[in-house]
Design goal:
The chain is an all-alpha fold and 286 residues long. It is 58% helix and 1% strand. It is built from eleven helices and two strands.
Length: 286
């Protein structure tokens, strides 16, 4: 049994390995968009990053030239960052480190007794493949793996540098609202302090455009856009995944970002639950 599982995780035959990777990932996409609401719809740059990584993962064992292997190794290095992010998001980071481990223990129990939760291990499946390819690579190719990991890391650090101060400015403009308040009808206390930029666009878009936590696997209506950088910033600098929850976000999104759509045309998932995003009754505060 152990040998069978080991073969599934990294099959010796690269053709079978590729087929398993394709089927496993396809299952993840089907569940994400048609059965549950997990990662929803990534922003365009995140989708491109994942596509580059996934293509690298599939093609790396077939590459012959050092040049092609080097390029693909950069994609695999970026995949380390991507896989780690996916695993943390799935673990409900707001529950802390204990919640992280408890979450994966529950997934493991689900696999053993119900056959559920297997898709939660996709990030670890990817990491295992990257590790195997890194271990087999010659030194110069390994440097490319490291370079690939540095690219998204540097982008994230650059994004995070002003994040804390921008979040504080947003709070100052909104006032301190109880994050557990259920209604979305409060006005900004100091709108003159508000600065319209890419950060405040995201802060205003939380709850109407961007979703920022997997609170439950099937937790009702949810906006569809998934921005990893926004989520990482909130993990590090916010005590809530939904800052200024009471704020009438649609009102101020229209005011400060009139050329942007506050409501997008895609869905988090094509379940009956996910389709309620287009239900006007959920937009009573607009």
């Amino acid at each position: 049994m152990l040998k069978f599982i080991k073969n599934l995780f990294f099959h010796k035959d690269k053709h079978i390995r590729t087929l398993i990777t394709l089927l496993y990932t396809l299952a993840g996409f089907v569940v994400n968009y048609f059965m549950l609401q997990v990662f929803c719809v990534p922003v365009w740059w995140a989708a491109l990053f994942f596509a580059a990584f996934f293509i690298s993962l599939l093609l790396f064992p077939y590459a012959k030239s050092y040049l092609l292997k080097s390029v693909l190794a950069i994609g695999l290095g970026a995949g380390v960052f991507i896989s780690l992010y996916l695993s943390v998001f799935l673990s409900h980071p707001s529950s802390g480190f204990i919640g992280y481990f408890v979450g994966y223990i529950l997934y493991l129990i689900g696999i053993l007794f119900l056959g559920l939760g297997l898709l939660a291990f996709i990030p670890f499946y990817y990491l295992h493949h990257i590790y195997k390819y890194f271990k087999q690579a010659v030194p110069i190719i390994r440097y490319c793996f490291v370079l690939g990991l540095l690219v998204p890391t540097i982008i994230t650090v650059a994004y995070l540098r002003p994040f804390k101060s921008e979040l504080q400015k947003f709070h100052n403009a909104c006032g301190m609202y109880d994050r557990n308040y259920l209604y979305h009808d409060k006005d900004m206390q100091h709108p003159e302090l508000f600065t319209a930029n890419k950060y405040t666009e995201q802060f205003l878009g939380i709850g109407i455009k961007y979703h920022t936590e997997l609170d439950f696997i099937y937790d009702g209506w949810r906006p569809p856009v998934h921005d990893p950088l926004l989520n990482i910033g909130l993990w590090l600098y916010s005590d809530t995944y939904y800052p200024a929850r009471q704020l009438n976000r649609v009102k101020y999104y229209k005011r400060f970002f009139p050329n942007k759509d506050y409501k997008v045309s895609c869905l988090c998932s094509y379940t009956d639950d996910g389709k309620t995003y287009f239900d006007s009754s959920y937009w009573h505060w607009q």
